[in-house]
C-alpha cells in the first residue's frame, strides 16, 4: 500500500505463498493492488519469475466481487497487462466470470476500453474454432447474469464507436434480449440526448455544429493487439494509381517466381473491398471527395474566427463531441435496424420470466418504435417506418400507437414527421386507446411535468393551447366532438385538465401587470411634467423657445413626447390584462400579445425619459464640462440597461411564442 514494490518481491522470494494472501477488506491480493495502481512492470516481472502452475493459480484468484487480475486490467484498459495475463492461460482466464457474470471481455466493453477489448477478443478468437459451437461459446462470454450483452452495455454507456464494431464481430447480439425483455435497440431508443432531433441548440451552436465534419465510424478487422494489420491511408484520387502498382507488383512476382504467392489472399481482399465499396455507395456525400480538403480548411478557418471572437476552444470542442455522438448513435441505430429480426423490431415480444411464486409469467414488451416516439427520437421512428411501414400499427398495452404516444408526450418533431406522411395521417391518426381517447383527447390532457421550453405558467398555458390547436387541425372534423369512455369531448377535457394551470398563469400575469403598471404610471407622470417644460424658457414677446434652433432641444421635445405616449400606452395595456377573464383561449394570442406590446412600450418610455433628461440637462452645463459629462450620462443609463438585459429572455420567449406555430419541446425533463 506504500508503494514499496521491491520489498514485495523480496517477501515473495522468502515465502511464495504471500502472493495468495488477501490483504484488504475487498479480498484483493498483491496482484490486484498492483494492477489497481498501474504497476505494469512489477506485474510483468512477478509473473515472469514464477512457475507456470503458480502463475495460473494466482491469476485465477478472485476478490470479494469475483474479479480476477485480468478483470481489473480489462476494466482499467491496460492493454499491456491484458495481453501479458491472457496469453498465459487464454481459455480459462478470459472465460472467468465475476459474481455478476461479467467476463474480462465484458468489463472492457462496459468501460469503453476499445484497445483492451480487441486484445482480449483476439486471444479469444485464437483459442476457438470457426464452427457454430465455438461461436456460441464466444457469444455467451459477451453476456452477464441478467442477460445484458456487451452490446447492451456499450450502448448504455454511450460508447457508440465500440458498439459499431461489436455489431460486426457479434452479429447475433443484435437480437439478444436481457431478463427485462429489452433489445439493444430498446436501450438506444431511451437515449434521446444522443440524437440531433432531441438536442436544442442556439444559433451560434447550430453554426458550429454544421461546420463540424464527422465521418462515420468504420468497422476494422483489428482483433489482435500485436498482429493487427495496419491500414494505409491515401487520398481517394490516388486509389487507381495504388491499385495499378499493386497489380504490377503481383504480375512481376508471378512472372519471376512462376506462381502467384498471394493467390489465396486476393479473393479475401476483393471481397472486403467489395463490401467496403458497397457501404461507401450507400453513404450520401454532401460534396465531392475532391472538395473535402477545401471544406475542412474553411471549417477550420471558421472555428479560428469564432475562437478569436471569444467563443472559446473548449466550448467549440464540446459541440464537436456532441456531433460525433449524434453521428455514431445514428450509425449504431441503422446497423441495429438493418440487422435485427422483424419479429423483435416491429411486433410485440413476449418474455417469459419466473415470478416470486415460482410461476412462469408473460410480459409484453413495447416495440422500439413506440419507445422512440415516446422519447422523441425522430430519427429512429423515421428509419423503422422506412424499413417496415407496418410498424405504424404497433400499439402498447393501452392500445396507443406511435401517433398517440408522440402527442401524449408532447414530441413536436416526431409529430411533424408523422403528419407529413399522408398514409399515416389517414390511418394512424384515427387510433383510439383503451379509454376511448383520440389523439385530440391526449393533446388536451395536461400532465404534471412541464414539457415546453418557456418560463411561467402563462407561457406554458399558451403553448399547451397551441399544441391542442396544432393537433386539432390534423384531425378529421368528426373527431372534434367525439366522446371518450368518461363522456368527455377533447374541448371539455382541455378545460378541466388545464384549469389549475390557467389559474397559475392568471396569477403570474396579474402580478407582472401590476408591477409593470406601477412603473408605467411613474414614467407617465415624469414624462408629462417634462413635456410641458421648455429648456431655456420662451421669448417674452413671441413665446417661441429661445433654444429652438439647438439640436438638443429637438431631441428633448421628441423624446419627451415619445416617453409620454409610450408610457400611457403601456399603462393601458397592463390595465387591460388585469381586467381580462383569463379563459383558456385567451392565453393563446390575446394575453401574450398584450404583455409583449406592454413590455415593448414600457422599455421605450423608460429609454425616452432618459434621453429627454440628458438632452435637457445638456443646456445647463458650462462649456468646459460638456465634454466630461458624456461618461456620466452613460453611467446613468447603466441601471436601466441592466434591467432591460434581465428582461430580455422573457421578451424573446414571448416574441418567439407569438410567431412559432409548433411549440418547442424541452428535453431536460422527460416522461418515461
UniProtKB/TrEMBL annotation:
Subcellular location: Cell membrane
Extent of Basic and acidic residues compositional bias: 261-278
Membrane topology term: Peripheral membrane protein
Organism: Clitoria ternatea
PANTHER family named among the record's database cross-references: ANKYRIN REPEAT PROTEIN, CASKIN
The name this protein goes by in its record: PGG domain-containing protein
Disordered: annotated span: 261-282
SUPFAM superfamilies for this protein: Ankyrin repeat
Amino acid at each position: 500500500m506504500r508503494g514499496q514494490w521491491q520489498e514485495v518481491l523480496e517477501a515473495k522470494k522468502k515465502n511464495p505463498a504471500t502472493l495468495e494472501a488477501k490483504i484488504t477488506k475487498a479480498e484483493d491480493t498483491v496482484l490486484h493492488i498492483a494492477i489497481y495502481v498501474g504497476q505494469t512492470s512489477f506485474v510483468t516481472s512477478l509473473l515472469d519469475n514464477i512457475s507456470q502452475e503458480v502463475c495460473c493459480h494466482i491469476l485465477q484468484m478472485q476478490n470479494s466481487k469475483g474479479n480476477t487480475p485480468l478483470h481489473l486490467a480489462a476494466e482499467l484498459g491496460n492493454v499491456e497487462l491484458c495481453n501479458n495475463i491472457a496469453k498465459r492461460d487464454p481459455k480459462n482466464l478470459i472465460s472467468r466470470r465475476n459474481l455478476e457474470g461479467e467476463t474480462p471481455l465484458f468489463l472492457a466493453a462496459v468501460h469503453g476500453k476499445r484497445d483492451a477489448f480487441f486484445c482480449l477478443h483476439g486471444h479469444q478468437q485464437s483459442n476457438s474454432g470457426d464452427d457454430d459451437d465455438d461461436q456460441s461459446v464466444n457469444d455467451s462470454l459477451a453476456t452477464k447474469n441478467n442477460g445484458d450483452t456487451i452490446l447492451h452495455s456499450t450502448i448504455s454507456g454511450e460508447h457508440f464507436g465500440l458498439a459499431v464494431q461489436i455489431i460486426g464481430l457479434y452479429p447475433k447480439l443484435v437480437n439478444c434480449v436481457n431478463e427485462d425483455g429489452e433489445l439493444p435497440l430498446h436501450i438506444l431508443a431511451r437515449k434521446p440526448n444522443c440524437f440531433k432531433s432531441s438536442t436544442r441548440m442556439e444559433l451560434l451552436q447550430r453554426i458550429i455544429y454544421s461546420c463540424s465534419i464527422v465521418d462515420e465510424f468504420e468497422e476494422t478487422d483489428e482483433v489482435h493487439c500485436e498482429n493487427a494489420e495496419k491500414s494505409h491511408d491515401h487520398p481517394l484520387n490516388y486509389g487507381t494509381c495504388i491499385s495499378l502498382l499493386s497489380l504490377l507488383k503481383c504480375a512481376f512476382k508471378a512472372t519471376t517466381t512462376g506462381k502467384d504467392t498471394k493467390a489465396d489472399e486476393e479473393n479475401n481482399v476483393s471481397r472486403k473491398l467489395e463490401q467496403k465499396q458497397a457501404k461507401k455507395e450507400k453513404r450520401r456525400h454532401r460534396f465531392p471527395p475532391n472538395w473535402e480538403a477545401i471544406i475542412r480548411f474553411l471549417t477550420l478557418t471558421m472555428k479560428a474566427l469564432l475562437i478569436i471572437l471569444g467563443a472559446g476552444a473548449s466550448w467549440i470542442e464540446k459541440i464537436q463531441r456532441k456531433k460525433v455522438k449524434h453521428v455514431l448513435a445514428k450509425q449504431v441505430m441503422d446497423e441495429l435496424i438493418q440487422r435485427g429480426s422483424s419479429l423483435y423490431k416491429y411486433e410485440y415480444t413476449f418474455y417469459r420470466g419466473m415470478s416470486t411464486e415460482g410461476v412462469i409469467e408473460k410480459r409484453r414488451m413495447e416495440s422500439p418504435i413506440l419507445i422512440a416516439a415516446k422519447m422523441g427520437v425522430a430519427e429512429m421512428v423515421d428509419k423503422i417506418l422506412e424499413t417496415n411501414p407496418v410498424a405504424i400499427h404497433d400499439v402498447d398495452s393501452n392500445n396507443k400507437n406511435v401517433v398517440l404516444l408522440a402527442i401524449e408526450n408532447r414530441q413536436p418533431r416526431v409529430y411533424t414527421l408523422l403528419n407529413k406522411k399522408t398514409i399515416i395521417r389517414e390511418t394512424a391518426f384515427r387510433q383510439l386507446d383503451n379509454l376511448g381517447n383520440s389523439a385530440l383527447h391526449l393533446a388536451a390532457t395536461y400532465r404534471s411535468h412541464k414539457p415546453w421550453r418557456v418560463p411561467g405558467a402563462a407561457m406554458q398555458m399558451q403553448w399547451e393551447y397551441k399544441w391542442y390547436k396544432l393537433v386539432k387541425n390534423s384531425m378529421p372534423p368528426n373527431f372534434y366532438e367525439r366522446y371518450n369512455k368518461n363522456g368527455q369531448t377533447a374541448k371539455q377535457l382541455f378545460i378541466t385538465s388545464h384549469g389549475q394551470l390557467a389559474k397559475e398563469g392568471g396569477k403570474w400575469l396579474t402580478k407582472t401587470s401590476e408591477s409593470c403598471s406601477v412603473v408605467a404610471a411613474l414614467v407617465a407622470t415624469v414624462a408629462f411634467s417634462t413635456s410641458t417644460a421648455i429648456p431655456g424658457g420662451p421669448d417674452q414677446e413671441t413665446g417661441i423657445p429661445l433654444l429652438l434652433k439647438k439640436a438638443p432641444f429637438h431631441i428633448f421635445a421628441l423624446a419627451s413626447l415619445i416617453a409620454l405616449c409610450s408610457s400611457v400606452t403601456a399603462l393601458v395595456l397592463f390595465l387591460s390584462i388585469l381586467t381580462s377573464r383569463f379563459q383558456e383561449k385567451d392565453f393563446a394570442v390575446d394575453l401574450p400579445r398584450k404583455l409583449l406590446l406592454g413590455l415593448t412600450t414600457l422599455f421605450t418610455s423608460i429609454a425616452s425619459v432618459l434621453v429627454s433628461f440628458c438632452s435637457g440637462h445638456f443646456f445647463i452645463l458650462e462649456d468646459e464640462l460638456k465634454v466630461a459629462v458624456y461618461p456620466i450620462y452613460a453611467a446613468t443609463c447603466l441601471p436601466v440597461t441592466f434591467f432591460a438585459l434581465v428582461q430580455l429572455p422573457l421578451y424573446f420567449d414571448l416574441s418567439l411564442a407569438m410567431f412559432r406555430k409548433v411549440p418547442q419541446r424541452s428535453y431536460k425533463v422527460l416522461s418515461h
